Amino acid sequence: MGEMKLAVVGAGGRMGRNLARAAHEMEGCELVGGVERAGSEYVGCDLGELAGLGRLGVEIGDDAPALFASGIDGVLDFTTPAASVQFSELAAQARIVHIIGTTGFKADDEQKIKAASRHAAIVKAGNMSLGINMLTALVEQVANALDESFDIEIVEMHHRHKVDAPSGTALMLGEAAAGGRGVSLEEKSVRSRDGHTGERRAGDIGFATLRGGSVVGEHKVIFAGNAERIELSHIADDRGIFATGAVKAALWAKDRKPGLYSMKDVLGLS
Length: 270
Ligand code: NAD
Description:
10 helices, 36% helix
């Protein structure tokens, strides 16, 4: 069996460069291509040079359909919701692995990705790090053990360039808390508070978003009871953890049957 041939879409992005490095460095796979959106300043650049690996002779193109159909085995995608939905359709046509780290999807985007997963093995996760997925499992367990006398609040902070809020990871932690309690996050979530909000409703799951500086990603889940509080938190120091997780997910998904998988599946936490 040869090495898994991987390409990076959004190759010029913050995560794109980390993904290129991880795919180049990890055993079992080979970095074979990259695309950017048409008009991007990175089209025509060498993927290796952009990722700080030195020249690899792999040029970043802008023709995603051609890349998906070029005989590659999988694509690493941390781009935008609109782009990732299109890429999932291309992955389904080419019957290749699609790893989606993009966040900020709407419900109908999620449905389109689900439909594409009938023909492609797709791993999608709002956070690809081992630590966050471990935290998610712990949050579910704690939420299951404690009743509504413990108020759940989720606080996150990211760099000033992040465009969606709350973060995909915060929502993933919210889903875990709601799942542990056997309630629907949609019904219980309070995404923001401003002005005269009234008292906190028992059972709500609150979110608070901080943005600033170069923070890679910090998440804290607070279980606030009467006179005591549990805080579970995770701090990401380097984007490399997400990229390594994404490449591991691709290697895991190789030769799996089509379907929509999560990092829980990849890490054996499900
Ligand atoms: P970024 O803006 O630096 O990079 C995105 C790149 O995608 C850009 O270079 C952009 O030009 C490119 N792009 C957009 N549309 C495209 C298209 N149609 N074709 C090809 N390329 C296209 O953003 P970023 O900080 O790298 O984050 C990207 C996404 O990944 C965000 O949604 C972010 O929340 C998410 N993210 C997820 C994780 C995780 O572990 N799941 C970790 C970090 C970031």
